[in-house]
Amino acid sequence: MTIIDETGRVGKEAVDGTLKSVSAVTKGFQQLAAETTDFTKRSYEQSAQHFEKLSQTRTLDKVIELQSDFAKSAYENWVSQATKVGEIYSEIAKESVRPFEGLFAGFKNVDPFKAS
User: Fold this and answer.
1) Staple 24 to which of 45, 71, 95, 97, CB 3.0 to 4.6 Å?
2) CA 92 – CA 27 distance, rounded (Å)
3) Are the C-beta atoms of residues 60 and 76 closer than 8 Å to each other?
């Protein structure tokens, strides 16, 4: 196989890999958008429920207890969400690079001085 043939093959594989990579990134961003939307909805619902409980509370001790519980829960949910988002970004990076892993492996077997 000549270097011209090999260059053509690598070029085609690069284009194919780029399309696969862009597709993986697009799917990952769609997953991120869905996950963020779900988290936002859950967070809003939890906040509304918390406000409802606070509005029905009559003692300061109970208000402080409810607020402390809500703050702890909100923080735990946020950390969990941040972990999920980090995992999704990591998966996007892995999937977007995967099409290019073996792209240039064939070049080491090509003789650049071979005429045909």
Assistant:
1) 95
2) 8
3) no
